[in-house]
Each structure stands twice: as structure tokens, then as C-alpha cells.
Amino acid sequence: MKSINKLNIYIILTLAGTLLTGCGHNNKQKEKVKAPATANISIDQDLHAQLSAFAAKPRMKGQFALYVYDLTADKPVYGYNEHKSIPVASCLKLLSGVAGLHLMGSQYTYDTSIYTHGKVENGTLHGDAAFKGGLDPQLSGPALTMFAKALRKKGIRKMDGRMIMDLVITEPVKSEQHWYPWDLSFSRYGILYKGAPKIMKEMKAALHNQGISVADSQMVLGKVPKGSRCQLRFHRSIGLVIDRMWKHSSNTQATSLLYTIGHRVNPKGEPTLTGVTYLKTFLRETLGQKDTSLVVHDGCGLCTYNHLSPLALVAILRYGYNDKPIYQKLLKHLSLSGVDGTLRGELNDAKLRGKIHGKTGTLSHPYGISSLAGYCKGSNGHTLAFAIMDSEMSVLDARVLQDKLCHTLVGISKSKPQR
User: Fold this and answer.
1) What is the pLDDT of residues 64-76, one digit of tens each?
2) What is residue 123's predicted lDDT score, i.e. its pLDDT?
3) Apex CA 83: angle with CA 80 and CA 84, to 5°?
């Protein structure tokens, strides 16, 4: 028994020693964990001083704030009123675009299809045809012709069943609560956002143009019947939508994306309310921007009640930078200074051309609102994210400040006019 007890004591001590050794070993491992690669990278102190001097210079009255972050060093460079919540205008599209890409993925496609259910004999479809319209914001009325042609290629000239329209939304898009009547041209919405009667009218016309007879009584709303065979499926990349809403600041594309977000989160919910709720959650939970003064009312920035801060805008850009697929979309679809989009005529000084990837935001009523946020390379080669926001001052004066900031960021003095 004594030998057994000694053996048990030995085993216990050995196990205890192993556990203690393991803990000690783990602690040593923790001590050896390398510091982040950016820990020893310094920001450009000269840039910090220049930005401080820029912010201190006299300027026109109005709200003014900016924030610059060194993405390479993963450290802030300079901020002036960076926590201040200011009307953001179309820079809000950065939030809806990045949040949408985060939710649905950078490879997401809008799909639109046409199906048949039944047999074709002597030019007659004995059964139903069904059009499944998703939320493609760029599908036009004339584009429905390709779906009519797909039926014609199957030899269909008429059908004795129904032409079923399976639509995600049946009501036309309406103006949001605080938009001005002239803010949005509803005629520029894709056909799938103009309401069921308009879509059905356009589809009937497309069928007739292809020699397919269909009566008004056969055009019905419903779901694609089970067992139907797809005759044509058309895909549109989300990148094409993002391009228009960022590079060209399309309000219709941004609002359509908000519908897409809302439907993805809750197919049975009201899409704009659900979409806005998701944007708020993304801002608060994913980006960590919990300031209650930040306000999101829509997905495009038309509402003057939309308020973000330079810190929040840069947080969106930082998130995008750290997500490679999203960052690729940002670099590809943001406007390029002096080259394309809304920056084609802005920041077009020879020394700035092609150096700023940015999103503009402008509302001239009821008072001047102008913002600019994006990426550029500093004079030290570091990638910078920045946001400058102005309100209650002339948009022209605000753009002068944006121009000066961008020259400072890339480390060049503004070109003098040639005589």
C-alpha cells in the first residue's frame, strides 16, 4: 500500500509539474508574441504640423472639421473637430456602399430570370411563363426584350396559361420624408423600382414586339411555379451599381442598394426602414461609432438630417481598407481626382490629377453642405484616409478648403497659374 501511495503521489506531482510547466511555457509564449507590424512605423510629423497650420488659418464662417489617418502606420495623423457631427450629404454613400458589400459580398450579383412551366406545341405554350424580377437597379424597360426573345427562341407565339410576374417589390419607390421634390429624378430608376403596373405593361409590350400574343387577363402577379424551367437568367454585378453610386454619386442607385440591403436582412420587412436600421447597426456595432449625435435617415445622403463626423467617415474608410475585396472596390469605383466621376472637374491641378480616390458630398440647400472623403498617398509613401466636412458656408469656399487639404496631404504646393 505504501508503494502504491508513493506511486500515486509521484503521478500527482508529475502531473502538477507538467501543468505548471505548461502554464509557464504559455506565459513565455505570450511574452514572445510580436508587436503589430505597424507598431514601429511613425507618422509623418511634418504632415501633422502642416495640417495643424492649415486648420488654424482664417477661413469663411461655418462648421469645419477634418480627420486624417495613416493607414500604413495604423495611427491617427491629425484631427480638428473630428468628433463633430455635421450634415454629410452624399458622402453617406460610403456607409451604404461599404455596409452593403460587407453584408452581401463583393461578388454579389442581381439576378433576373424567365421561366416556362408546360409544353410547347405548334407555337403555343400549354402552361405558364414566369418572369422573376429581383432588385436590379439598372434593368430598363427595353432590356425586357431579351427575356421575350428567350421565349420566342423556344418557339412560343402564344400561351394558354398565365404570364406570371414574380416581383420583389410591387409599389414604386417613393420620396423619403425629408427630400426636396427636385432632389431625385424618379424616371432614372430601373424598371423594377417603378411598380407592378409599369413592369407588367413593359413586359407585355416586349412580348408583343417579339410576336408573342398575351392578353391583359393573362398578366398576373404570383410566384414562379415549382418545377418551372429557367430559359434565361441575367446577372448584373454589384460593382456596376457601386460604380454609379460612388463615382457618379447616383442617388437612385444608392436608394436601390438600400432596398437590396433591407430585403436581404428581412425579405418581409419594409425595405427602406430595414435598410436604414442595418446601416445604423453597422455604424454602431461593426465600426464602433456609438456617438448618438450621428444620424442616418436614408442611403444616399439627400436628407439634410443625415449627420456623420470626419471620425465616422474615416472609420468607414479604415474598415474598407482592411477588407481586401472591399478595398479593391473602393479604389476602382471612387472618383479619381481630375480624371473621372464627380472629381473630374475638381482637384484637377496637374500635381493632384489621379492622386485622390474620393467621394464627394454636396447639398446647396437650405445652406451650403460640402464634404470630401477618400484615400491618397502621402509624401512618405504611406496610404492615408481622410475626411473634411463643411457646412453653413458657400460650397465654393468649402471646395477651396478641400483643394488645399489635398495638396497638403500629398505633400505638394499648389501649381501656380501660367502666364
Assistant:
1) 999 999 999 999 9
2) 96
3) 85
